[in-house]
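Notebook B, p. 112. Complex prediction, attempt 2.
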Amino acid sequence: MIKYPNNIQKNNLTKIHYFGNRGMSLENDLNDTNSYYLEKDIAIIHKKPTPIQVVDTKNGKIINAYFKEPSTTDYNGLYRGYYIDFEAKETNNESNFSLKNIHKHQLIHMEKILNHGGICFLIVRFIKLDKTFLLFADKLINYIKESERKSIPISFFKEEGHSIKYNLKIKVDYLSIVDQYGGIK
Amino acid sequence: MIKYPNNIQKNNLTKIHYFGNRGMSLENDLNDTNSYYLEKDIAIIHKKPTPIQVVDTKNGKIINAYFKEPSTTDYNGLYRGYYIDFEAKETNNESNFSLKNIHKHQLIHMEKILNHGGICFLIVRFIKLDKTFLLFADKLINYIKESERKSIPISFFKEEGHSIKYNLKIKVDYLSIVDQYGGIK
């Protein structure tokens, strides 16, 4: 075991970082990231509000409503003149990402975005492995069309996707992947 | 008075059209328009869900929640590779559009969209005049910066904006204005 200053062992450091990351949900990390992009005038990307059907209100307060199924992806916005669109999901599974997490109309939406010149992807976090991947929508759509499986193995994310490194300043710096592999001119 | 076939007078025709149009809110007309664009594979533009803060749920039903103030515009999407972003408002006033209808953070958002290469505008319907205008965000922002007034007179929309003609098939065909004047290459 390597000795660090003040007798902190490497494993402990890793653990602190590990839990420091895991303590926040992917949604919170993405909100932080998008706030950072907005503040630094890098991109204007927002999470869409959860669609809610309001049934009844009383004195301006909602007293009866229910959650609706989203018909598009959760995040969209503008970066370097490009339309950006993505969905983000977490999973507790350590080896597979179940395709039940993605609705059919979300896939149709993603395909349309690609056809109209937008940049579209899926961000998946494997919580227990503390790994976050970006998978561009063309690869996701091709996988679903060609595979009989109802889930995507983590090996596919490793080979065809891009790992997003955790960073204290930019928690999920997905635009660095878009810069490199998003087909931006 | 010009006589029309079957003795229908022109005024009556106008009236029928007038109420036919006015019966629907601008929001409904825009939803119809966006559905048409989506079906015909012209553009992918959606209204964002109204932001709602959920306080309490019971058996999956929301029993306590309240409306939050939107921090961006209501509509965004993708058209011909361009990021599209707009706000839509109706007014019962016949001569002015009150700037109270637009929040400061919405204006900041619009300015950012322009700076990052998006196409951004405001759609205003003067209900009683049955007139709908598109005003590009640069003109809106300049007006607010240069004018001391707390409202925009309809004359400004006539001179600097673009009238959107009502059309049975495409109720508010704002993309025809974007095609002509939106700076699309």
